[in-house]
Amino acid sequence: MKYIFANWKMYITAEESRKLAHEVATCSFDPQALSLAIFPSMIVLSEIERLFEGSGVAVGAQNVAWSHQGAYTGAVSAFLCKEAGCRYALVGHSERRYIFGENHEDVRKKIEACFDVGLTPVLCIGETKEDMEEKKREYRLKKQLMSALEGLSVPKSGFIVAYEPVWAIAQSGIGTPCTPAEAESVHQWIKAELAQYTTDAVPVLYGGSVDTNNVVSYLTRSTIDGVLVGSASTRAESFLPLLKAATALQINS
Ligand code: PGA
């Protein structure tokens, strides 16, 4: 099983989201071989979930609150996301950590909130350019994993990890990806680390400037269980060929 997760961030309008979702819904793929999920804006989440009914495409939230209910202006709980039909939620995306100031404790509580309501969290981890310059990649990833997972009892719905080097994430649609070989060796390292926290197999996805041209080179690596695609997933002309390439790979394998 390989995963294609599409994080639409705040790139497109509600109308563009509906149109793109319609096009994605018509793509044929084998749900036993490919797990496809879209993370749209909250504003169209329920609508898009309904639109995907029967298509095998899941939806996820880009963020959740760590509290379940109460006086939290502007926040959306994991429960509300679940109620809207989400199967997944991104937790600890670097844009949440570095732009909106979320800390390790927030990330941990959000994972617990997802577990409480049966959402599968996608824990995003990744080092910055500065971490790389200071040779602190492993230190950063270790810290992010430990603070999020230590002592946690993992429910059946499980969790997913997305390795997203911050330096590889596209800014305004342009970025420099981590090479598949480098991503593969980091994934190997992450999987070894994860063994401390759970005996279950945890899918580890790569994210950071994945596009139509490079998607296959990631998906063909055995330690890369899938990809989390940002900007290239927000336009039909790049996302549909990307899906087609991933589907062809499944058919041929
Ligand atoms: P990108 O974003 O594909 O635009 O680099 C990936 C992500 O941040 O999830």
UniProtKB/TrEMBL annotation:
Full protein name: Triosephosphate isomerase
What pathway annotation does it carry? Carbohydrate biosynthesis; gluconeogenesis; Carbohydrate degradation; glycolysis; D-glyceraldehyde 3-phosphate from glycerone phosphate: step 1/1
Identify its protein family.
Belongs to the triosephosphate isomerase family.
* Keywords for this protein: Cytoplasm, Gluconeogenesis, Glycolysis, Isomerase
**GO CC annotation terms, alphabetical:** cytosol
Q: Which GO terms describe its molecular function?
A: triose-phosphate isomerase activity
Q: Which reaction does it catalyse?
A: D-glyceraldehyde 3-phosphate = dihydroxyacetone phosphate
- Give compartment(s): Cytoplasm
Organism (species): Candidatus Magasanikbacteria bacterium RIFCSPHIGHO2_02_FULL_47_14
How this chain assembles, per its entry, is: Homodimer.
| Segments crossing the lipid bilayer | none
Q: Which PANTHER family match?
A: TRIOSEPHOSPHATE ISOMERASE
